[in-house]
Fold this sequence. Notes:
There is one protein chain. The chain has three domains: 4-115, Nucleotidyltransferase, domain 5 (2-Layer Sandwich); 128-194; 218-322, no CATH class. It has twelve helices and seven strands. It has helices at residues 37-49, 69-77, 87-94, 102-115, 128-164, 168-197, 199-208, 216-225, 235-242, 267-283, 285-296, 301-322, and strands spanning 4-10, 14-21, 26-34, 57-62, 81-85, 247-251, 255-260. The radius of gyration is 25 Å and the shape is globular.
Amino acid sequence: MKKFYVGIDISKSKLDVAVYDAEKxxxxxxxxxxxxxxxxxxxxxxxxxxKINLEDCWFCFxxxxxxxxxxxxxxxxxxxxxxIIPALQIKLSLGMTRGKNDQVDAERIAMFAYTFRDKLQPxxxxxxxxxxxxxxxxxxxxxxxISTQLQNSLKSHQAVCQLTHFDYVVDEIKKQIIEVKVKIExxxxxLMSEIKRDKTLENNFNLLKTIxxxxxxxxxxxxxxxxxxxxxxxxxxxxxxxxxxPFEHSSGSSIRGKTKTSSLRNKTIKSLLFNGANAAALHDxxxxxxxxxxxxxxxxxQSIMNAIACKLVYRAFSVIKRQSPYVTLYAQxx
Length: 334
């Protein structure tokens, strides 16, 4: 247990800080610093002036993407303990609240850290390799969205073109679609070059690809989101994170709802896993037989796809644990 829990509300230009004293059971100090290297150094010097040892502190803040990158880096440079918590997790823990500003948020984060101190897990920055891969995946997602928008725009302009016989807009959109496609292919090449830099990553990447339904992009996402299967070691927990693990919905004898997945999920990996499930249902004989049997039993298509997505994740964790390629057993019954 630490003596102080430091809650930090991160914004683009500043960091609102609140220090909770675990012994006195109150907020000991509040201040604002700039969200830059010099400002973060002033955070450490301010704590020292208050005779607060950094070794006695547990820093806590919300996940804010690149806005918190400098803070994580500086904390790790001096070996401070910190936790990055999803904003929704903190929000749900607070119950009913009134009012909101950055300083109040910092206090609430500090209180959250103290209240749930026994459950806090130290966070750690991804390696340089993972940081590059994440950046490339983010850029790839942007390009894929642009490609989809252009494809939809092309269809509508082609319909209009049949009446106006004016081809300029259609031709321009087609050129842009080709350019975006080339960019996506270039990003894919860069992703593969980063994967090949690390032999362990490359080995696990190749193992994942032996599973029908799990292609290169899904494999890369699984490696990144699990930190090469170190931050997640249990398939069920990852399915919960992805939002594909079913949960019972009942209460006493009066409420008997359908078993369903949680709305708290990583939408990107869930969408990718569903794409993989559709591919597996077409090309994997075992899963195809499973799909047909469940369909005959009256199961809804989406429900079956969700179950198949779960199976893909279990297979992924299995091949990584065994460190051997997936072997299809056609005689196997689901």
